[in-house]
Amino acid sequence: MRRWFRIAFPRNYLDRRSRAGFLFVLPALLFFGSVFILPLAQSVLYSFYKIAPGGAREFVGLRLYEKVLTDSSFWTAVGNTLQLLLFSVPTTVILALAVALGLNRISSLTWRNVWASMYFLPFATSLVAAALIWQWIYEPVYGFLNYALSFLGIPPQKWLQSLFQVRPAIAAVSVWVRIGFDTMIFLAALQSIPEEYYEAANIDGANAVQRLRYITLPLLNPQIIMVCILELIFNFKIFDQVYATTQGGPAGESQTIIMLLYDTAFKYFRFGDASVMAVFVFVTLMVVTLLQWRFFRKPVEY
């Protein structure tokens, strides 16, 4: 409390510097609080109420949690989301790391920047626009993918209409969108590794695989963990690609937890149930993120 008083009423130069720093971050704090903290608090509050479309509320305690957490459709949506995670997160991280390693080997800075920009472009694209592009690519009759596969003698596939192909097809969209962003993170980290480490390894007779295993990957551990966390959050909250392409179909095979949350709140106006789902998403992501950060982070020094 005394510290806040000295920021509000500075007595010396250091207090004035502290107040200036606080004022600089205050807009970001207000934005974060109004966009993230306040809606989260409202979701937690609404999860204990049965809310009618007109706004009437009835306190029901934990009954909505019991209702949602025992609903088979909710766990089906969670299962679909986890399958999309398994398809997209490892693929995105591995491909992004491979692309970053390839770009880092390009000696020409101009060509490296050109290729890096090409990989980054999908990330700058609207998710809805990217989904619509891939919807055309997956089109069973006139789509580009089936046209290309026809030259290999493969019959047309119903990618987004198939019960078995729809989730991998949507996961491919996520990989295409996210790979550029993750590549930039890995590329920046690779360029910060001192060249002396590799020179010493060459003198000791280490080959390329050994240099990757014992130097590159250990030093990239913080970035790998961060990228995994970001991809986990992004793919667990996947919505735009599903809504723009399948809207949860066919037969609910691509309905994710956020898609179910959206339908529950804005189609069926069960805001209390939707708030329970939002709390579930927040708690799940928080727990998994903390576990990842706790058990997989390995500081490395040479």
Describe this structure in words.
The structure is a single chain. It is built from 14 helices and 2 strands; from the N terminus they run H-H-E-E-H-H-H-H-H-H-H-H-H-H-H-H. The chain has 302 residues and is mainly alpha-helical. It is 73% helix and 2% strand. It has helices at 2-8, 13-46, 63-69, 72-104, 109-124, 127-137, 144-150, 166-191, 195-203, 208-219, 221-236, 240-245, 257-266, 271-296; strands spanning 49-51, 57-59. The longest helix has 34 residues, at 13-46. A hairpin with a 5-residue loop joins strand 1 and strand 2. It has 2 domains: 2-34; 65-296, Orthogonal Bundle (MetI-like fold). The chain has a two-stranded antiparallel sheet with strand order 1-2.
Strand order of the largest sheet: 1-2
Rg estimate, integer Å: 24 Å
The percent of residues in helical segments reads over 70%
Main beta sheet strand tally, sense and closure: 2 strands, antiparallel
What is the tally of helical segments? 14
Report the span from N to C terminus.
Answer: 42 Å
CATH C-level category of the largest domain: Mainly Alpha
- Overall pLDDT metric: 88
CATH superfamily of the largest domain: MetI-like
Q: How many domains make up the 3D coordinates?
A: 2
- Find the structural class using helix and strand composition: mainly alpha
- Name the poorly predicted regions: none
Number of strands: 2
Oligomer: single chain
Proper CATH architecture of the largest domain: Orthogonal Bundle
Topology (SSEs and partners):
Elements: H1 2-8, H2 13-46, E1 49-51, E2 57-59, H3 63-69, H4 72-104, H5 109-124, H6 127-137, H7 144-150, H8 166-191, H9 195-203, H10 208-219, H11 221-236, H12 240-245, H13 257-266, H14 271-296
Antiparallel strand pairs: 1-2
Helix pairs in contact: 2-14, 3-14, 4-8, 4-11, 4-13, 5-8, 8-11, 11-14, 13-14
